[in-house]
């Protein structure tokens, strides 16, 4: 079955998993309504599909997702976008999806992108990955449960440090803090994630 999306690339594998690539590289995979809507649509389409028993969610080498699309938000206040349902459908779909989702993160995972990665069951990071909640630089707090999830993942002190200063956490610190499950070389990231997904799918 063909999957046609304007902001996602879909690879279905015979051993029971799919790789979903966020595909807005020119915008560092910034999250907009089209991308989040398509991600929600795809997850809904495979929710009852036994040929897809695990998902790998990834981005580009430079960015998993570098936050919200500021251009799309230009006509609305940032806080209003977060209070609305800009990310709600995709985030709800990821959070409530009944099959494992692995985030394979290379480059930047910031703001909504970091929150999206944390919604997945676990994160495999490349050694170039950088995580952050820099919303404070725009005068707001993380809006889709990011501060709560970050606190659960890395503890209150580090979470507050990141949310209140906007500083980023590199892959080594993220693994040490418990945000990511493992760190691999950038060129091995997808192979590592695919192998994990195939193993999970084989046990499902």
Can you lay out the helices and strands and say which pair or pack?
Layout: E1 8-13, E2 17-22, H1 33-46, E3 54-58, E4 63-66, H2 78-83, H3 88-96, E5 101-105, E6 108-110, H4 112-119, E7 122-126, E8 130-132, H5 146-154, H6 156-165, E9 169-170, H7 171-177, E10 182-184, H8 189-202
Parallel strand pairs: 2-3, 3-5, 4-6, 5-7, 6-8, 7-10
Antiparallel strand pairs: 1-2, 8-9
Helix pairs in contact: 1-3, 4-5, 5-6
Task: Describe the 3D structure.
The protein has one domain: 2-enoyl-CoA Hydratase, Chain A, domain 1 (Alpha-Beta Complex), CATH 3.90.226. β2, α1 and β3 (54-58) form a beta-alpha-beta unit. Strands 1-2-3-5-7-10 form a six-stranded mixed sheet, sandwiched between helices. It is built from eight helices and ten strands. The protein is globular and about 45 Å long. α5 packs across α6. The protein has 204 residues and is an alpha/beta fold. Helices cover 38% and strands 21% of the residues.
């Amino acid at each position: 079955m063909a999957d046609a999306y304007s902001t996602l690339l879909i690879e279905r594998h015979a051993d029971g998993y799919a790789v979903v690539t966020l595909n807005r590289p020119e915008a560092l995979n910034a999250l907009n309504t089209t991308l989040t809507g398509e991600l929600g649509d795809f997850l809904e389409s495979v929710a009852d599909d036994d040929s897809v028993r695990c998902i790998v969610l990834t981005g580009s080498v430079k960015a998993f997702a570098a936050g919200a699309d500021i251009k799309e938000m230009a006509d609305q206040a940032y806080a209003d976008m977060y209070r609305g349902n800009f990310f709600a459908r995709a985030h709800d779909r990821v959070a409530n999806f009944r099959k494992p989702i692995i985030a394979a993160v290379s480059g930047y995972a910031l703001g909504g992108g970091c929150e999206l990665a944390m919604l997945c069951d676990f994160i495999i990071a490349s050694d170039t990955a950088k995580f952050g909640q820099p919303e404070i630089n725009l005068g707001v707090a993380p809006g889709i449960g990011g501060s709560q999830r970050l606190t659960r993942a890395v503890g209150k002190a580090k979470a507050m440090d990141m949310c209140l200063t906007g500083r980023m956490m590199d892959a080594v610190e993220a693994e040490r803090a418990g945000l990511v499950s493992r760190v691999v070389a950038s060129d091995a990231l997808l192979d590592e994630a695919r192998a994990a997904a195939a193993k999970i799918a084989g046990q499902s």
